[in-house]
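>> received
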Amino acid sequence: MRKIVAVKHLSIIIPEGHLILDTIVGTMNLFKMANSYSKRIGKYREDLFKIDLVGKSREPITCHKFFDVKPTKTIEEVKNTDLIIISSIVGDIEGALIKNKSIIDWIKMRRIENDAEIASLCRSAFILAETGLLNGKSCATHWEVHQQFESKYSKINLLPDKIISEDNGIYSSGGAYSFLNMIVYLIEKYYGRETAIWCSKMAEIDFDRLDQNQFIIFSGQKDHGDETIRSIQDYIEEQFEEKLSVEAIAAEFALSNRSLIRRFKKATQNTPYEYIQRVRVEVAKKKFESTTSNINEVMYDVGYNDEKAFRKTFKKYTGLSPVQYRKKFNREMAFS
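>> returned
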């Protein structure tokens, strides 16, 4: 017998500024699919969620200079909602936060007054963070803006490797198309696993993918003002094959070990040792992607002599073993 349930309301937020259109369309389509399938299998008699695209006004917002998105409701018109999903922003984040101040205030009030659950997609974690609702909680966002996010929001526990974070009804997803995993995750919560699996199969979404480590491209956190630390970063990137130690680097740049570690961590969010590891792993990744060198050859090329330590470090930063990574990203190996 089909259940009769109170219809819930989903607000897909259309922020002002530059948007990623796919996070709007993909979210809407997946929830429509879930509504349709749950009725087809007899779970519900009507749509579980009524869906609105919610903006500051009903004026169309242009995405990528070509596509207009027209909100169906304004924030003033939506007084009650159960789930808020914030579409991803791109480009000037600080400018977007200023433009969306009224939306940020509205999100906070809907949490307070409606106990609405809230999910941010990709860089819209910055909009969610501005509400203050993430203070003391965990969060995920695109790996490219991790340093900026950590510097701006010290009260939030950033989970840099996670695709999905959930903390007391507040959700956030990693970068770009990992938003699809977040939406399937939410569909499972509200509609059940059968519907979530069906949606993931129909949309061909990799179900239960949990981390973004394998997609991170480490380019060194150099957007800081410490010139000495930037010089040390360059030194590490040039000498990564050598036997590097904190003591040797500190002596090379006339710093104490303690001062080096403190300043390096403040500037880059990594210790010198972690930075060395990440530089070496990034070089190893490129070799696995573009050459047929075996694991030992790559290991020696990037400055490791201990195979066990190399494998452990590689998996720590990529989420995959060297063999798994090469098979996944090296075209020649994938088809061999």
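>> The chain has a mean pLDDT of 90.
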